[in-house]
Amino acid sequence: MYSVRRGNNYQLFAILFFLLGSNSLGLIIQGFGLEIPFLGLTAISQLGLVFLPVLLYVLYTRVPLRPTFQLYRLDIVNLLLSLGIAVLVMPALSLVNILSQFLVKNYIAESLMEMQDLSLGTSILFIGVFPGIFEELSARSIILSNYRGKPVRTTCLVSGLFFGILHLNLNQFSYAVLMGILLALVVHLTGSIFSAMAIHFTINASMLVYQRLIFDVMDGMGADLGTLVPAGGVDNYSLLTAAGALLLVNLLTFPLLLLVLRLMALYNGKAGLLKANAPTGAFLPQVPGEPAMPEMEEESIWTPQFFFMIFLFLLYVVLFEILLPRFMTYG
User: Fold this and answer.
1) How far is Cα 101 from Cα 29, in angstroms, rounded to an integer?
2) Other C-beta atoms within 10 Å of 32: how many?
3) Which end of the chain is more exposed for a tag (fewer CB within 10 A), N or C?
4) Distance in angstroms (rounded) separating the CA atoms of residues 305 and 301
5) Phi-psi sector, 159: left (phi>0), alpha (psi -120 to 50), beta
């Protein structure tokens, strides 16, 4: 029912679908001179380009929904621990984001600027709720279910890598990989995809609330909101200052993050999760018709589909983040 090859096939299909879909949409918009608002593009991206491959996967494979997507109840203790993890990991993700900006531009900041005229509730729905649900089903649930016979470390790393690649730029890739690894680990600990959804939503929603507070303060002072994202990008001195401040914050929050993860492991009786050389399936609810303790699969994750997915991402980044900007600058 589940296999590494099927999981890798899905990852390649999802990336190809996203690449072809987003670029085709861009050509249609440009060719017909259409003006689609930011929320419309976000809805198309989440519902059409992220969730549709998930739906097609279900229709094609006819897998049982509950064990495939880890749709199991999340109790109040695990929910509270998940929210704590979300708060404590944000400084680490912000630090990685800042460090990546020494090399590439900040894509998420530009997106936030396009949302300044939207209501906070609408922004949270499209940037918090939709990704929190659809991206988790794609980048976490399907990979975990198909990597049931692989070690936990391998499953978490592949889930994080795919989650980073799905964003199709180096800036978001840098911290999405780390976030994806953490979310996969949390699903192993709780046995429920709702824990990852809660963390994902909280991180995105908190970012939106923080951005709105900054906008309101600057607007009240009569400041130009455009100064938040300078046309030439943030200078290296400002980045270095921000990185230094975040590093100090992380000295406090990162040990607390590890402590909360430890508490979650103890609460769920999975204290030996990373120490034990056991497969992912041993830490997730049992699939009907399969053994309670799945055997470790010998099948390699390094399939042609897996390599091709990575190749596509690198090619896309080189073309659109390195070569094309330089061509446009000197052209």
Assistant:
1) 29
2) 8
3) C
4) 9
5) alpha
CA dihedral 213, 217, 222, 224 (to 10 degrees): -50
pTM of the complete model: 0.92
233 Cβ partners below 8 Å, 6+ apart?
Answer: 101, 105, 106
Higher pLDDT, 205 or 40: 205
Collect all residues with Cβ–Cβ distance below 8 Å to 126 and sequence separation of at least 6. Answer: 39, 42, 43, 46
Q: Residue 174 is inside which H or E element, if any?
A: helix 170-190
The confidence score (pLDDT) of residue 230 equals: 54
Q: SS3 sequence, 60-93? A: HHCCCHHHHHCCCCCCHHHHHHHHHHHHHHHHHH
Residues 225-276: tens digit of each pLDDT = 555 555 556 678 888 998 999 999 999 999 999 999 999 999 999 987 766 6
Domain regions of the chain by residue span: 4-330
What is 217-248 written as a DSSP string? Answer: HHHHTT--GGGGS-TT---HHHHHHHHHHHHH
Amino acid (1-letter code) at residue 69: F
Residue 325: half-sphere exposure toward Cβ, Cα within 13 Å:
9
The Cα 211–Cα 123 span in angstroms is: 11
